[in-house]
Specification:
This is CoA ester lyase. Keywords: Lyase, Magnesium, Metal-binding. It comes from Streptomyces coeruleorubidus. Its cofactor is Mg(2+). GO terms for molecular function: lyase activity. By secondary structure, the chain is of the alpha/beta class. The protein folds into three domains: 116 residues, no CATH class; 235 residues, TIM Barrel; 46 residues, no CATH class. It is 32% helix and 14% strand. A seven-stranded parallel beta sheet has the order 11-10-9-8-7-13-12. Helix 11 crosses helix 12. The radius of gyration is 28 Å and the shape is globular.
Length: 421
Amino acid sequence: MRPIAAATARMPGKGEACAPAVGEAGQAAGGVARAPGMGEVRPVGTGVIRAPGMGEVRPVGTGVARAPGTGDARQTASDVTRTPTTDKPRAATTDTPRTPRAHEPRFTGTGTNRPPVTREPHPTTPPRPPLRSLLFVPGHRTDWLPKARAAGADAVVLDLEDAVPAPDKPLARARVAEALAEAAAEPAGGMALFVRVNPLGDWTAAEELRAVVRPGLAGVVLPKVHTAVDVRIADRLIGWCEHERGLPAGTTALVPLLESARALHDAYDIAAAAPRVAYAGALTAPGGDVERAVGYRWSPQGTETLALRSRVLLDVRAAGAPCPVTGLWTDIADLTGLRACAEQNRALGYEGMMAIHPTHVPVINEVFSPTPEQLDHYTRLVAAVESAQRDGIGALTFEGRMVDEAMAETARAVLARHAHG
């Protein structure tokens, strides 16, 4: 095949292909060349290189080259060549590794090229307080709120979804609105009230949001979230409701429930989709939506969901969504099993759990709270590190362990969260 400067070359009986000019391969500096069996290949600097079965292959000045089963293959624009007998890109030999450039896109662990998701805080979004326990109460049974308060729940989720029979939903909405109005008249700092609305599948959820987003509401729990788009829609609707009620934008927290495989997979994007997202995490109750979606077999030990809960927690933390919580323990009488489950979740890094019965609240609160002895230990640790720093010492031995500023910072965070000292 003859080299081409800026035209198109065809081979008898073959398809067409485009490639940059390097001689015998029939490539053009600024035009289009065709080679047998390769589909269309655009010149570097003018577009995207494509090959059968490979998706997009981007040279380094415009992106990232990929080859099947190899993850990201990064090549310079002058290094990429093709041969008529293979679909794989071949890089020229070099002894000098290329330094990735700052403008190149980041990639997820699945190999999908997605633009980075950034979570920009809204200037009026208030800090979200840590919540150890969030107790579900049916929306039409607001008369149970005193029991939840007596149990010591940090928050109650008034449920307008699964816990309410269809004929009682209008009544539940009215009672929830009344409970929120009463809460707004009470002093701040008491039990927080959240409302679980119905999924964003029809106007029902929008009407519920307009009824419940008002003073006295701490947040909205949104079920059946599948993608970040669901969160952005809910965020916009809640924002309109806040404006209508005269509330500062971002006042209302949004708790997305990740109840499908797609949602669990996209936990980072969902958690980063709006500044109001908080208290997100993996809910792995037996027999529920998540078990059905993922297909695991639930056990009290939780080994089958340990990796799932860990990964979702990491995604939520990386997205910057505060105060991740998990759940649920549905065996009402088994408080020993509940404690083991809560301790495992606390060890992973969750800050609280959702609950379905008032008797679960004291156990959950205890597990997700430091003991007085732990708080005293953190107080002594901070004092020891700060004393050593004044003497020009960065690391020291404290009660048999090496500690430094990193450990002191962790201790300060725990003390601040629990208002100790």
